[in-house]
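Example A, followed by Example B.
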Amino acid sequence: MSYTFDYSGVELNSAFKAVIDSGLSATSLTLNVVTDKAGIVSDALWSDVVAVNYVLESILFAESAGVDVVLKIGTTSGARDVLYQHKLLAGTKDLLVFNRFFSSTSGQHLYVESNDWNGAEVDATIKLYRLTG
């Protein structure tokens, strides 16, 4: 995968990059952020993974150990308010689209959990975009 980043390390979406390349003002366009979480083998807390004024656009999950796993994601431990149950099959990739806004005042933790990891290993690529306006 190829990403374009601004000087602060934030990925620029293609529309934003096109405006920058053209020399026009780009103050109202959204910035995308891509975060990778590799080698998840047990329940995990992603602290403040969704920043203030950002939307959780999608998560690409990839299972690499050859084991099916049922994932749930919540805003608190044990919750399923973001993803109820999703069966990720052994050796596959699934793109889940959320387009979910959490807060304009604080970052949002997410808890990724399974009732039985059973040796599964999951990589996650989290894509966010910033609300502007």
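Example B, a separate protein, is given below in the same form.
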Amino acid sequence: MIIDAYQDMTLKEIQKSFNKTPQAVTNGVKRMIERTGRNDWKIKNGRSTIIKAAGVEWLANYFHLDMSLTTMDEEREHLRAEIKRLSDLLEQERNNTKKLEETLKRGFEIELEANKKVFLLETKEKDNQIKLLEDDKHFLETSNQRMEQEIEKLKNRNLFERIIKKYE
């Protein structure tokens, strides 16, 4: 709540105006007196306590600052959690990429070995073997293009990683 012209208020009125608990208002008044040394801003009036307008203004600033700091702390914790989550996702993506690379490499090795065996066993059918080898070559070129695309994606992810590290 923003108040343009402050006025003398009871502790209960301050609680309602600033939406604070009785304990928060009591702590705020104690801090006000400790920091300003102005005991005259707090007046006992029978069963109630009145805070002078200058004290109410000080409390307004104190509660606003306290709320801002709490909000900043919460935001900082949220950002830390988000960075951790993104770092975990990035690490998981790296692991998945590494497994994919290993699987592709092993697949190429198995396929190459199989092609060698086929070539050696079927020397009588040279024309068929040439066609198979051309198909294999086309498959390997296509696979190589896919692997180059995957490598490009990895490079882009590395850029994302550098950006995250910059803000950690």
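On Example B: The beta strands are 9-10, 42-45, 48-51.
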